[in-house]
Amino acid sequence: MAENLHCGRFVLNAERPLVMGIVNLTDDSFSGDGFGANAVLAINRGLQMVEQGAHMLDLGAESTRPGAEVVSLQQEVDRLLPVIEGLRYCGVALSVDTSKPEVMRLAINAGADMINDIAALSAPGALDIVAASQAAVCLMHMQGTPETMQANPHYVDVVAEVAEFLAERVAAAEIAGIPLNRICVDPGFGFGKTLEHNIELLRRLAELRVPGLPLLVGMSRKTMLGLLTGRATAERMPAGIAAHVLAVFRGARILRVHDVAATRDAMAVVQAVEDY
Ligand code: 8Y4
Questions:
Q1: Total structural domains in the chain?
Q2: Does the beta carbon of 192 sit less than 6 angstroms from any atom of ligand 1?
Q3: pLDDT at 174 over 50
Q4: Percent of the chain at pLDDT exceeding 90
């Protein structure tokens, strides 16, 4: 059936919302969630998220924040590999957030089950590396590059343009030999989007569904929630819960979040009402 995501060693049933816990391996102090090069802390955070009910973990060592220092390939690999090894048998699928084909290859060889690429496999060779593996991929929309994307985001119809982009990247992935049952898509909240664009995408999220492909969304702690509530990064969890509940109502199936326990609680309530 549709909505089963083949994800490396796992087949995930995405008929129900899946929770993907964020394990941030950057030095990002602004978001307050970066473990930098401390693999032990990062592994323990991942294990805690599994205990809290995460269905998958997203490991990222490449900072996407505008103006963030560029992370070298070597540094990205040095930070990812020990954490992949440490979490390899944690029981849930391991996603790796990277845009670099060489990092993808090494991460998959080390045991990653999924590639989460904010550049939607646009780098030369990226499509082929995922195609040659059993790894799933998340194809995300971004306007511009992380350095410049928030300078002046512009769309005539943000929903139509994001949908068209995702359809094009799904077609490219399929042509490269990645089966549809290994692909999920993501509108990329905050990636070259104003608050108004993000709200429009959330309101009309159902229009972004590609039949049979799980829709992944990530709004956890993001600026859009800060603008709506006036709250600092660490205080945005309730706003994030509301945003992700609304997203699930509109068809989202994988939620990329920092707050796994709270998100699982919210999903338990959603599920009870939907299943009744
Ligand atoms: C505080 C904490 C403020 C984190 C902002 C942030 C997405 C993603 C990111 C997403 C997919 C982030 C890697 C941005 N966002 N991957 N990655 N979808 N698929 N910012 O929305 O979390 S990083």
A1: 1
A2: no
A3: yes
A4: 85
Give the CATH number of the domain where residue 48 resides. Answer: 3.20.20.20
Q: Using a 6 Å cutoff on CB, does residue 221 contact ligand 1?
A: yes
What average pLDDT does this structure show over 197-209? 97
Instruction: Compute the radius of gyration of the chain from its Cα atoms.
Output: 17
CA of 22 to the centre of ligand 1 (A): 9
Measured distance CA(69)–CA(249) in Å, rounded: 37
pLDDT digits (tens, 9 = 90+) for 3-39: 899 999 999 999 999 999 999 998 875 566 777 778 9
Domain of residue 211, residue span: 5-275
- Ligand 1 pocket test: which of 30, 31, 145 has the largest number of ligand atoms within 8 Å of its C-beta? 31
Instruction: Give me ligand 1 centre to Cα 276, in Å.
Output: 33
Q: Which of 183, 165, 186, 166 is nearest to 174 (CA)?
A: 183
Return the ligand 1 atom nearest residue 188 CA. Answer: 21
Average pLDDT rounded to a whole number, residues 70-82: 92
